[in-house]
Amino acid sequence: MSEQRVLIVVDMQNGVFASPRYDRSGRVEQINQLIARAGRVIFIQHAEGEMTEGSEYWQVLPELHLPEDALSVTKTACDSFYRTSLDHVLQGQLNVTGFTICGCATDYCVDTTIKVAASKGYAVTVASDAHTTGDRTYVSAQQLIGQHNEVWRELSVPGNPVTVKTTAEILADWS
Q: Of the candidates 36, 32, 65, 8, which has an alpha carbon nearest to the alpha carbon of residue 174?
């Protein structure tokens, strides 16, 4: 399977969006475009507090498309690899060494997963306009999104730089 066509969607769940998130409808639209063109989709779903596995809060947002062959990995930490089956799904089941990532929250689970994946040697492409977060005490969601895109572009992982592209650029690559 072409590694560029595996899409990881992080924490786009009802419970995560119980708090306001920047540009929900726009980000969902971008993610749905990626889902429509991806070879395989992996939904990462956080389980914590009211977001117990199988609960309404744990469910993926209803406006996101759910391909029949989509895979799901449940996590309990910001790191989507920590005590989960994600490595096995990527390497054992799908036989890929890279993926495109999007989702929520930019500054927590998306950021941690990107950095851990790059350190593990995965080729990571970030959809720069398909991740979101909420406003924080000292910085706005828009500022966090822009700052994280910049950090990921400049992240020092010798021999394995993180790629940051817009959804349109990723879709063009997938054509």
A: 36
Residue 103 DSSP SS3: strand
Give the tens place of pLDDT for each residue, 127-164: 999 999 999 999 999 999 999 999 999 999 999 999 99
Residue owning tokens 């720069």 = 128
For residues 151 and 110, is the Cβ–Cβ distance under 8 A? no
Cβ atoms < 10 Å from Cβ of 157: 13
Distance of alpha carbon 42 from alpha carbon 25, whole angstroms = 20
Per residue in 76-94, pLDDT (tens digit) is: 999 999 999 999 999 999 9
Its pTM stands at 0.97
For residue 57, give Cα distances in angstroms to 47, 61, 103, 130, 135. Answer: 9, 9, 16, 21, 21
Distance CA 123, CA 5 (A): 12
Give the DSSP H or E segment for 24: helix 24-37
